[in-house]
Structures are given as C-alpha cells and as structure tokens.
Amino acid sequence: xxxxxxxxxxxxxxxxxxxxxxxxxxxxxxxxxxxxxxxxxxxxxxxxxxxxxxxxxxxxxxxxxxxxxxxxxxxxxxxxxxxxxxxxxxxxxxxxxxxxxxxxxxxxxxxxxxxxxxxxxxxxxxxxxxxxxxxxxxxxxxxxxxxxxxxxxxxxxxxxxxxxxxxxxxxxxxxxxxxxxxxxxxxxxxxxxxxxxxxxxxxxxxxxxxxxxxxxxxxxxxxxxxxxxxxxxxxxxxxxxxxxxxxxxxxxxxxxxxxxxxxxxxxxxxxxxxxxxxxxxxxxxxxxxxxxxxxxxxxxxx
Length: 302
Description:
The protein has helices spanning 8-24, 38-44, 63-71, 80-87, 89-98, 147-155, 200-204, 219-236, 270-277, 282-301, and strands at residues 106-110, 125-129, 139-141, 160-165, 170-177, 184-185, 189-192, 210-212, 241-248, 254-260. By secondary structure, the protein is α+β, with helices and mostly antiparallel strands. Strands 5, 6, 7, 8, 9 and 10 form a six-stranded antiparallel β-sheet that branches. A four-stranded antiparallel β-sheet has the order 1-4-2-3, covered by helices on one side. The radius of gyration is 19 Å and the shape is globular.
C-alpha cells in the first residue's frame, strides 16, 4: 500500500482496511508501505503472497506486478499486461473499441505539441491524463477560453492528455469479480455527484456524493452495462477484482470510460458497496480477492 503516486493517501486507507480484514479472518498479514526497501521488507517479513492495495502509477500499471513476477511471488489482481493496458486509457479504449465496446470519441494531445480542439468534437469536452486515476488532473472544458488551462492541468501528471467527447447522462460503475466459473458482475451503482462532476473531492469527501445501488436504470440498460463490464474485463485479461466506469446517456446508451484494476477498498468504497448489495460483507470480499490470487498461483504451477 501507499507508494509514491498521487493516490498515496487513498492507497493507505485501502491497505489499512484490507489489513484489518485479513487479520480478522486469521491470516498472518503485515502492512507494507512501498518504498526503496520493498524487496528487503518482503524478505525480512517472510511474505508468501502480496495483496495489492496500491493505486495509481507504480501500483496499477504493471510495475509492481512485474517486480513480483520476477521474484516469483503471487499477488492479487490483474497481471502485468492487463494492468498496463487498463491503466493507459488510450490503449484500453483502442483495444475495447476494436472489440465493439462503445467508448467516447476522442484523441490524444501530447505535451509540447501545438494543439487545438479537434473539429469533430463539440464543447464541452473532457480532458484528462492518459495514465492517472481518481479523476486526478481531469477537467470539463465548456468553452475555448478553458482549453489551454485544462491541457496544462492534465500534462502536469502525464505527457499525454486524453481529450474526449463529454457524454451527458448518468455516472454508472460496475464492479467485476473473477472466480472459478469466470467473471461475474456485482450490482450496478449510480453516482450522483454535486454539479454532475465526479472529481477527486466528490469521490473522497464524505457526504459530497450520493450512491444508488442498484442503479435506477431500465432493466434492459442494467443488463447491457453489466454485460459490457464483464466483456471489458475479459478483453483486457483482468483477474481478481476490477471496476468498469460508464456514462449512460438519457436515452440509455452506455459508454465505457475506463477499467480500474485495483479498485478502492476502504469500507465506504464502491466495490465493497456493490458486494454488500450482493450479500457479501467486507471481510468475505477481501478473502474472495485473496482466493482468486491463490487459484491463479496454483494454475501457474500446473
């Protein structure tokens, strides 16, 4: 948990909650704040398996997964390739679109390049870093005078900024869990954020946003977003727990925004909320994620 990304504080909260749950379940769990001594800590504490609670770059992008693969240590969540592809929004969108998954129209603007808004996109547009999480560095640009400031904000976090068509409608998220019989979607959640913008403050300030679970969507649309979530999970090759974020237009057309391969696991996060609606308490959910890593480790040895 922890690490050096801009999501460090949220990662610590996730890690502490997971640690407590594992202890309650009787596991010999230790909490490790990732720094330069990580390998020494893993050896000194005789760790046999890593439960990944690292958010953002370094944790969700395949970096820590590659290190653990190199030393032969099993870990929770998606592997190197799926993590790297899901974290980079451009790569994920391109792959999903190739498989017929609806994604917002958009483009990439690289830092230092002279760029104006693509003519095919109308105001407003979304501008965000290509490989950040927790809506860090994101802007809704409603007019030309806001364009350059939004690019600077995104480029402060990544050399690539993703520019997308703004999709009006509902903010929907679907958590997906891998299992011995394949991936399954948990109940949908609609996020009702102040001003309709689910930014960092709206996510992590208690009481700022409302959550409706299951989302009050027509049954047909509900089935469609859960099916699309599982498809996106499978296309990217995810494992363990993941969360797929959507915008659904007022007419019921869903668009996949991104896939999060290490969803937040604080007691008030969206994944535990959906699991609770499905009848799975926090400790059971934590153990299910751990068991998925055990299954993958056993399969790799066969």
